[in-house]
């Protein structure tokens, strides 16, 4: 695995930086891509040309770039907001993966890891475009997995829940407490935990895992309703 080439989009965000650090720690040469400096490649994944001389050499593609700050309920979602989320989170993510595939298929090796969201599975009030874009991404990645499994290429999604980022850190204390009450583990996910999962999926030894959506959400996706007592004993008939 030493010096395999990995590409990480959205590299300058909190999760992105953790992913870059983790991959470098385990021996990858990492090319960073972001709309903001100091990334190695500055571009808008939704609209800018993708340089073939960079993307063609990628052996591990981590599609992490995304928009998370669009908030609007379905009945008042503007077309502009809808398009913004779909363009970046779905179309931009697919463009990056697509640009890496020819080289991977030629070498008959590749790891594709897309950062989705628990919202793709559960939905999320106020973020209809975001949830739709991430659900669409999962369908695209599963299809990529089907089409490329015979070429030694795996394709998986990770589904983070609520992550400790500057956005969640800026919440009012009351809002933060309310958020934590919805998480069974009682805490936010750390960016390093997402990065560790991605590092595992990026490894040579993960070649038997493909077409999966792997949650890392502190149990949020488990659901809260149950018919057992607080002590964990089964309900009696």
Automatic annotation (TrEMBL):
- Name the Pfam families on file: adh_short_C2 (PF13561)
Q: Where are the transmembrane segments?
A: none
Gene3D superfamilies linked: NAD(P)-binding Rossmann-like Domain
Kindly state which reaction or reactions the protein catalyses.
a (3R)-hydroxyacyl-[ACP] + NADP(+) = a 3-oxoacyl-[ACP] + NADPH + H(+)
Which UniProt keywords are listed? Cell wall, Oxidoreductase, Secreted
| GO MF, any single term | 3-oxoacyl-[acyl-carrier-protein] reductase (NADPH) activity
Task: Give the matching InterPro entries.
Answer: NAD(P)-bd_dom_sf, SDR, SDR_fam
The cellular location(s) given in this protein's UniProt record come to: Secreted, Cell wall
Q: What family does this belong to?
A: Belongs to the short-chain dehydrogenases/reductases (SDR) family.
Q: What is this protein called?
A: 3-oxoacyl-[acyl-carrier-protein] reductase MabA
This protein's species is Rhodococcus qingshengii
